[in-house]
Design goal:
By secondary structure, the protein is mainly alpha-helical. It has two domains: 9-62, no CATH class; 64-105, no CATH class. It has helices at 9-17, 27-37, 48-56, 64-73, 80-89, 96-105; strands at 43-44, 61-62. α3 (48-56) links the parallel β1 (43-44) and β2 (61-62).
Length: 108
């Protein structure tokens, strides 16, 4: 499939159930195909529908915020707040409430 495609969770789930997820090499489906082939991997997706699909497929997920929190906990960044603020300035959508809850998880 060379052309761009937009899928919702239903076709993705059906193709996965039938064992044909690898037919779709676009958007989150490529991530899911790879994650299924590499069981120790973590699929990084932000979209809620994609996360629900990954949950159904039993693929562990994280989002961009989770990656930043992991970086803070592992010492790759000194503080998560400036990283999240920079990501927001670059176009990431994140409510103040969600950001504050996330920052509490890493002691900020």
């Amino acid at each position: 499939m060379d052309e761009a495609a937009v899928l919702d969770a239903s076709p993705t789930i059906l193709l996965a159930r039938a064992g044909f997820l690898d037919l779709l090499r676009v958007f989150e489906t490529a991530v899911f195909s790879w994650a299924q082939a590499h069981p120790a991997s973590l699929a990084v997706v932000n979209d809620l529908q994609a996360r629900r699909c990954a949950e159904w497929l039993q693929i562990p997920t994280s989002g961009t915020v989770g990656i930043v929190l992991r970086a803070k906990l592992s010492g790759l960044v000194a503080a998560a707040r400036p990283v999240l603020q920079r990501l927001i300035s670059e176009g990431m959508h994140l409510s103040d409430r969600t950001m504050n809850a996330a920052l509490l998880r890493v002691g900020e």
